[in-house]
Write a structure and sequence with these properties.
72% helix, single chain, globular, disordered N terminus
Length: 640
């Protein structure tokens, strides 16, 4: 079978190539992270300052090739070197900063101003290059609000202003630039990304794709189902929608196209499946770790709460893929000779499931997540080296260390920028004012508030990384939901889902656009196709509000969990029929509208409502099935 060796792994550069400025900086960053893991007594401020400085320097070096003139490239090298100075300054001054001065009272030294402003400016430039102009402009808006607040009349004004207070809060404390989001990136997320990179080097990513293809390749719509399963499994390790698309999509999308799927549909399947990776335990992306920190609960609690919603998410996508395959007549599969054999895959690389299982076990049992990920990375090295089929040379491991640092940029930078914004919101009182405004707009009616909250999270996620979108929504929107009586975990899960689904929500749907590039499909139509396919996912957050037991909040909620799961699953069958226009036979617009209404209504609480909506789905479904059994086989319709 002609296929790639697996996901695009970190192996690639030779020893000489690793001595170039960018790979060398990446290796230095990984070495720094390993050092602060081995010596946790290093002051927290130093750890976070080093993390951000490395992220900024590496981001500048990785975008070096985009600069056109030698003078600009020379200046870029200088800026990358300057990015290290604020961290060095913090390390040299940490005793004075943390123990000898009182924040907000004692005056700042000249170096505090110089290096603080330097760090903020370099962070803004690195974020603009890597993340786009949107997040930098948003941060600039909040910085302007900090300085302009004392001059704004009315309720939106505040008294917290001035350069000294700004630099003090943002640069010299653990509340701003080096606040909770940066702490999560530096002390948790980096090590999970490191595990994913090491795991990939020793064939873990390829094994996951081969297992998915072996399980589903011979079934109806096999390649698309393999994309769903492989993307979910890979996403649970990588925690990044776009990275997931680029790793699994280069294999699954061409296969889907080859068996007859429309390029837009193939790209949509991959985008929606990869986006769901951030919802799939044990590793759910940086936003989940931030959520645990904000709620002050163990990450294992987040993982357990995410299990049923993530299963429902992927069940909905599998239902849609299956019905689309049935409608399009894609009843066959890829030739068996071209599919990886499940038994052979398990014999050759099945031992690479051990690190993944160990990671899941450690996380669920409440073991410190950074230690769990490092242990699993070491176990991946041991298991991978033990068998010839997965053994890798030392240079590939060095590439994994460099790749881990490069991949962390997309987490570290938005976390640092989000820390700046969160500090402004907290010290200016904007969060409380925004909560009051949302309650007033909704009239204190929870359904209206939920709609406002979902729209707010989606808008914040337009063009922004999931982590930043979630943090903004958690600070500005979640308090209003909690004020109206929602459990804090339910409120945060609600906005967490919508922040993630913004990756497949037009007009800026980053995961969809990445998949469209692989499928050679138009970005706009692909984005809308993925959005429609993701519609069941938009139902899940509302279902969690109506059935909190879906988050497995306690033994007393077991009945609600089972009932809610059954309700939502049944709803997704109806929505799958509405999305694809097929349920045992092709459906017209009237039936599609009918099933869409029934699907949404089925999520509503109440035994009577559930009985009525289930009957409204089961009766016509049975009649259609019965009618189709008596008809001769029809010519397959063309995929749309």
């Amino acid at each position: 079978m002609n296929r790639p060796a697996g996901p695009a792994g970190p192996e690639g550069k030779r020893w000489g190539e690793l001595l170039a400025p960018a790979p060398l900086a990446a290796l230095a960053w990984s070495a720094f992270q390993i050092a602060i893991f081995l010596w946790p007594t290093i002051p927290t401020l130093v750890q976070r300052a080093g993390h951000v400085s490395f992220a900024v320097a590496l981001a500048l070096l990785l975008t070096h090739g985009k600069l056109k003139t030698p003078a600009m490239r020379g200046l870029n090298y200088l800026l990358a070197l300057l990015a290290a100075l604020p961290a060095v300054y913090i390390a040299n001054s940490v005793e004075r900063i943390m123990n000898e001065r009182i924040s907000g009272l004692d005056p700042l030294a000249a170096g505090d101003y110089a290096f603080g402003i330097l760090m903020l400016l370099l962070l803004a430039e690195a974020s603009r290059r890597v993340l786009g102009l949107g997040i930098s402009l948003l941060a600039l808006l909040f910085v302007a609000y900090h300085f302009g607040g004392p001059y704004i009349p009315g309720a939106m004004g505040h008294r917290f202003g001035g350069l000294d207070q700004f630099v003090d809060t943002q640069f010299l404390t653990l509340q701003g630039l080096y606040g909770v989001p940066t702490g999560v990136s530096a002390q948790v997320v980096f090590y999970f990304i490191l595990f994913a990179a090491v795991y990939d080097v020793f064939g873990g990513g390829r094994m996951i794709i081969d297992l998915a293809m072996g399980l589903t390749g011979r079934r109806v719509g096999g390649p698309a189902k393999a994309a769903v399963i492989a993307s979910g499994m890979m996403g649970s390790v990588s925690g990044s929608a776009v990275a997931n698309v680029m790793s699994t999509g280069i294999f699954t999308i061409p296969l889907m196209k080859r068996v007859g799927y429309d390029p837009k549909f193939a790209a949509g399947v991959e985008a929606v499946a990869s986006t769901g990776g951030q919802l799939m335990p044990p590793v759910m992306g940086a936003a989940a770790f931030v959520m645990a920190d904000m709620l002050q609960i163990p990450y294992s609690r987040i993982v357990i709460a995410a299990i049923l919603p993530s299963v429902l998410y992927y069940a909905a996508l599998l239902i849609t893929v299956h019905l689309q395959a049935r409608r399009s007549g894609l009843l066959g599969s890829i030739d068996a000779s071209e599919l990886p054999r499940l038994g052979a895959t398990l014999r050759e690389r099945g031992h690479m499931l051990i690190p993944l299982a160990w990671l899941a076990y450690q996380v669920v049992t409440g073991y410190p997540v950074d230690q769990a990920s490092v242990q699993s990375a070491v176990l991946a090295v041991v298991c991978g080296t033990a068998r010839k089929a997965t053994r890798a040379p030392l240079v590939h491991l060095a590439n994994a260390l460099a790749a881990a640092a490069e991949r962390t940029i997309n987490v570290a930078l938005p976390c640092a920028v989000a820390g700046i914004i969160v500090a402004v919101i907290a010290y200016s009182g904007l969060g409380t004012k925004f909560t009051s405004l949302m309650v007033a707009i909704s009239g204190g009616w929870l359904p209206a508030m939920l709609v406002l909250a979902s729209l707010g999270a989606l808008i914040l996620g337009c063009g922004m990384p999931t982590t930043s979108a979630y943090i903004m929504a958690a600070v500005l929107v979640a308090p209003a939901l909690i004020l109206l009586g929602l459990d804090p975990l339910v409120a945060h899960f609600f906005i967490f889902y919508f922040a993630i689904l913004s990756m497949v929500t037009p007009p800026v749907a980053l995961a969809s656009y990445a998949a469209a590039a692989i499928a050679q499909a138009p970005a706009g139509p692909t984005g809308w196709k993925a959005f429609v396919m993701a519609m069941p996912g938009f139902i899940i957050p509302f279902a969690v509000v109506m059935h909190p037991g879906l988050l497995v909040t306690g033994l007393a909620d077991a009945a609600d969990a089972v009932w809610g799961f059954f309700n939502v699953f049944t709803a997704f069958v109806a929505l799958g029929a509405a999305i694809t226009g097929y349920l045992f036979r092709n459906l017209g617009k009237g039936w599609r509208t009918y099933f869409a209404v029934v699907g949404v209504a089925n999520v509503l609480p109440g035994v009577f409502v559930s009985a009525v909506t289930f009957a409204a789905l089961a009766v016509p479904g049975y009649l259609m099935w019965r009618g189709e059994r008596r008809r001769p086989v029809q010519t397959p319709s063309i995929l749309r």
